[in-house]
Amino acid sequence: MMNYQVMNSSVDADLTVEELLWLYERMARIRAFETKVQTLFKRGTLPGFVHLYVGEEAVAVGACSVLERTDRITSTHRGHGHLIAKGADVSRMMAELLGRATGYCKGKGGSMHIVDYSLGILGANGIVGGGLPIATGAGLADHVLGRSHVTVCFFGDGAANQGVLLESLNLSAVWGLPVIYVCENNHYTEWMRTEDITAGGIAERALPFGVPGIKVDGNDVLAVRAAARDAVDRARAGGGPTLIEAETYRQLAHNEGEEVFSGPYRPNAEIESWTKRDPIVAFRARLRDQAGVEEATLERIDEQERELIEAALRFANESQMPDAADALRDLYVEEPA
Questions:
Q1: What angle do CA 254, 82, 155 make, to 5 degrees?
Q2: What does pTM read for this prediction?
Q3: Rounded to the nearest 5°, which phi and psi values hold at 277?
Q4: Per-residue pLDDT tens for 67-84?
């Protein structure tokens, strides 16, 4: 049966104020990081190109807030938010984006290839839908080895049209794998409206496999958290996979600098309408009005996160560039002697 999760009318009574503020803090960290990266790109100081997560922060934070350190995630080309939500070091992330040797991939991978196995981050991925089979494989490993871990697979609405989603759902359902597939439906597959190229609903694609398909307001961090918590609990108990469709909106371009070749393709009224539903602004209001959090507290968190990102940028700028002699290193796993 199709389930729909809607925005809660009040804050979650099971969460303490400290836990609620953690959610806000993590979303503010993602926003501060992405805003700084956008500035760096516009100044021409950032090599390569980036896909920013502004407007979608509630999905990553809501889903990752119910995970343990040993649980895993797979990410996408728009992955900074997922990594930060799972606990990645923003200094090492910034260093990687700036091509420095202190980055997660020693400056060789850039925005779309950050990995941290110690945090369960199996990697961002430039291949559309590329994380789906990786997450399914991780779930199979946990199932075979009898581990209680779960894996959350983030993917976009464009990847929902890749056959690998159906293949992954099928195997996960047959084997009862502990995988939560989270589709971030931001309504655009690059520059094409998703509704114009996608038949039916995305969450409903779980139904033929007997897998729960849940649609949530992806701009409501508590709604995402509630759906993810139920899915994670079900997976840990041996109940198998869940497909969550989180409806959200990217406020910025598909990738920074796209206007050079794409031209305008989204109505201004649409952008303005979704911007008014900004997940951070909405959650901030709920913290004030329903949890009694003072505005000064929220402002301190905002400032703290901006300072953290400035420190990350200083770390990156002060780091060494990779040595040319290391260009071909780390391409293969080294066999033990």
A1: 60
A2: 0.93
A3: -100, 25
A4: 999 999 999 999 999 999
